[in-house]
Write a structure and sequence with these properties.
Length: 110
């Protein structure tokens, strides 16, 4: 199809390849544990500290990871950080949780 004098081939660019995004989302859903999504700023560090404290108080031995790669963060559909992912599901984004709020979310995901 020609639009404005340019020929389109119907090929998707590499950044929108559905198989790559689907693979990233599927691998994230299969992982157990806790992930903090964010750039590593003070708010992200505060969320990580609160989540680690909550996990210790609940005696959870889940791995906790801090993800700073924006491509992986975008694969979760998160547009506002910091975000909390538990067992592959985004449970909070855009705010720093208190220890009590984190404990509530972690209990619900058990």
């Amino acid at each position: 199809m020609r639009i404005f004098g340019k020929q389109t081939t119907g090929k998707a660019c590499g950044c929108q390849t559905p198989s790559i995004k689907a693979a990233a989302v599927n691998s994230n859903e299969e992982e157990a544990g806790i992930k903090i999504l964010g750039s590593g700023c003070a708010k992200c560090a505060a969320l990580e500290k609160a989540v680690r404290t909550a996990a210790e108080e609940l005696k959870l031995n889940w791995p906790i990871a801090h993800v700073t790669d924006w491509i992986e963060i975008a694969a979760y559909g998160v547009m506002s950080t910091p975000a909390l992912v538990v067992k592959g599901k985004v449970v909070s984004y855009g705010k720093v949780l208190s220890v009590d709020e984190a404990k509530t979310l972690l209990k619900q995901s058990c």
